[in-house]
From TrEMBL:
Entry keyword set: Transferase
Residues of the signal peptide: none
Database matches in PANTHER family: GLUTATHIONE S-TRANSFERASE GSTA, GLUTATHIONE S-TRANSFERASE-RELATED
Pfam (any one): GST_N_2
Protein name, as recorded: Glutathione S-transferase
Coiled coil: none
InterPro entries attached to this UniProt entry: Glutathione-S-Trfase_C-like, Glutathione-S-Trfase_C_sf, Glutathione_S-Trfase, Glutathione_S-Trfase_N, GST_C, Thioredoxin-like_sf
Domain GST N-terminal: 1-91
Domain named GST C-terminal: residues: 95-218
GO MF annotation: an example: transferase activity
Amino acid sequence: MITLYGVHRSRALRCIWALEEMGLAYRLVPVMQAFRLADPAAPDAPFNTRSADFLALNPAGSIPVLEEDGVVLAESLAINLFLAQRHGGPIGAADPAEAARIAQWTLFAATEIEPRSHAILMNRVQLPPDQRSEAKVVDAIAALRRPFAVLEQVLAQGHPVGGRFTVADIALAETVRYAQPAPEAFEGAPHLKAWLAACQARPAYRTILARRDAEPAL
Ligand SMILES: N[C@@H](CCC(=O)N[C@@H](CS)C(=O)NCC(=O)O)C(=O)O
């Protein structure tokens, strides 16, 4: 049995998306981010990223964590690579060259996209208004210009790997999504916008977004 620790309103969403696309049975154990709780150590606090039992699974104290047949794994994108390798199917790699390309775009998402797009999400949406910095948004948009131009060129030809939707699309779509609160970052990138809309229109994604919206926000 696959167990995923996390909540939909977190980077666990990308793993839930992969699990749903693969049609795998899994158990989702809710683990709340500690920073969303007034007192994560309170006796009545929900299971959270500072709970001792969770830190035993992931000393980094972050969600998601996957557990399957004794394998305990943190890092959302590593989890998706593992799931794709172990359970295969069309969203995984057909051969070692595809596996390498999936790794390439997953690392591109983690290094070139996510730090910048996450800064946009934080400073346009998630931080309390008095802590937001529009200067950080401007810097992030500028830093995304080149990687977005790369994606625009690649996605004009179709999916990044194998001409079909794979876990590379999930890694890229879920990190590019964080930049959506800055529509100006997508100017001059019609293929990137169309590809993202198509990814987000997939039935599995619609399903998990509905579940995310139904999840208590705290
Ligand atoms: N690089 C990690 C980042 C994980 C991460 O930062 N998760 C956040 C939620 S999206 C978290 O668990 N924060 C908990 C905390 O700071 O207490 C991954 O992709 O899994």
